[in-house]
What we know:
Keywords: Endonuclease, Hydrolase, Nuclease, RNA-binding, tRNA processing
EC number: 3.1.26.5
CATH class: Alpha Beta
Number of helices: 3
Largest sheet: 4 strands, mixed
Subunit structure: Consists of a catalytic RNA component (M1 or rnpB) and a protein subunit.
Catalytic activity: Endonucleolytic cleavage of RNA, removing 5'-extranucleotides from tRNA precursor
Helix content: 25-40%
Family: Belongs to the RnpA family.
Amino acid sequence: MKKSYRIKKEMEFHTIMKQKNSYANRNFVVYIAAQDDVIEPKHFRVGLSVGKKVGNAVMRNRVKRQIREALFQMKNQIDPTKKLIVIARPNITKLTTEEVANNLKHVFKLANII
């Protein structure tokens, strides 16, 4: 994903999470907030968080790649006026890339992002 899609700053993470607008399933927690430039947003923005409970650095990076791939496949369906924080839960290491995409799509449907 391009840099313009990413949320990297800790302050942005905190402002999105403070709004307490979250949805979850067994593998993901998603926090949602509206973008600041709602007049003409080009695309959604997303921040990823994969904690140490998921596994070692190799496993965490693998999970992040799977999530980015799923987001890339769904980028035309996701509401461009949203900022998202996607948090992976430890159970995700057992899933394939396709299952990760299906679980992420499920959470987005719960949140009415898709």
